[in-house]
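Q: What structure does this chain adopt?
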Amino acid sequence: MILHVILLVSMTGLIFTHPFDGHFRFTLGVVVLATLLLYFRRLPIISIAVSAGGVMLLFRILIKYPFLEESLLSAFWHNVPAFSYYLAYGLLFSVFKVRDYRGNIPALILLLSICDIASNCVELMIRQEPGGRTLETVLTSLVAVGIARSLLIVIGYYLMKRYRDFVLAEAHAARYAELIFIIAKLKAELFYLKKSSADIELVMEKGYTLYQTLNAAQPGELVRPESPSARALAIARDIHEVKKDYYRVARGIEEILDVAVRKEGLPLSEFFQIIEQNTRRYINSLDKPVSISFTYYGEVVTDKYYAVVSILNNLIINAVEAVEPAGIITVTARYSGGKLHLAVADNGPGISPEDVEVVFAPGYSTKFSEVTGQMSTGLGLSHVKNLTESLDGEVTLTSKPGKTVFTVSLPLTNLEVSEPD
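A:
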């Protein structure tokens, strides 16, 4: 980092103009130097200024003066005063603590101008230039250039800061979108975990009922470990332990989500944009020529956006995988008749009529890994169906070669929507 700064300052120091007769010059190097010193607070001020001045001195000697009728020693002495400028500038920049005034633009411009003007005066005194120029003319030039370069420094610093803020905002938005999708997946898994917990509770009750029935039919058999009633009771106990583990895991996930999840609702437009950004990143990672468009009509606000995100995410991923080797996908959202209608359409090969009836069944899949040969779990569309029904909605499918459309209709009352403020 430090080496790059030194080289950049030194090379821009070769861009100059001669304001007077002689070797004195104004360069852009100091603009780059001060801008970087302001932006990167950890850069050592004096050592950077001295090193940049030294490397620039070397550049000027090696690049320019070998082509002139002048000795190397003479070229060195002609440029040593320029090194004194950078030394003085670094010292003044440090003494005045210029970095502490980055939030005060007038004071920042004033201090930068003083550093520039004073350092130029030091160089001129060492050079004993310019001859034949009045002091008023020289000072006017130094002040004008000092203020101009200070303005460029401040502009450059704030442009770099603005760009950094923009990049950070983009990164924050990307992380937020990823968090939404992670939580949406956790929400979906929590739904099935709770459903399984209810099933386990029912099985446990059946097991205990079986024990009671067997024990009533054959009183006293419980004392024998291998008796049917004893085994039924043991099974009921084991299921009870599994149920407690399920509840503990479910409660742990709920506590995590309580911290991570926003309690207020999100407008349709906002989480639709999140879905779009995430989907485009996913498609880009596949390096697959898929064209996808997102359209929404109207605006609703819901606190069930994680379920909606999970539903759309599963449908979109299925559509991306279905369009081989490339294709077009459209995602639309609109609300009418008291319902939010979500549709994901693709121009893939379609789903055969006999498969339309079973695509939502758990375990149904036509996808497999070309590497391992294993079939997909086939839970994506099952997730969609169960999440949709948990919101009292319905999902429909129409398909023919060249066009497949999944439509999810969700009652607005169950989404707890309200008009945005």
